[in-house]
Task: structure prediction
Amino acid sequence: MYFVYILECADKTLYVGCTNNLERRIKQHNESKVGAHYTKIRRPIILKYFEKFDTLLEARHREHAIKSWRREQKLNLIKYKK
Result:
């Protein structure tokens, strides 16, 4: 199982990522010295949205698509998926 996720950082910016262990990855974003520099300097982060995929290829395609969106589109996805 793979996940594409959207995080909201302390400065209200959004971060899109992909992982096979969502719980571990969120913990890394909030606590670890390794991982994404972007979130490391914008802690704490909050998980706002995620989707599940069966394959890494599907998840990577979706991650790439969401990353290309404007902020407003990402916020709409978060808002309407709840």
Q: What stands out?
A: The CA atoms of residues 36 and 69 lie 20 Å apart. The first helix runs from residue 22 to 31.
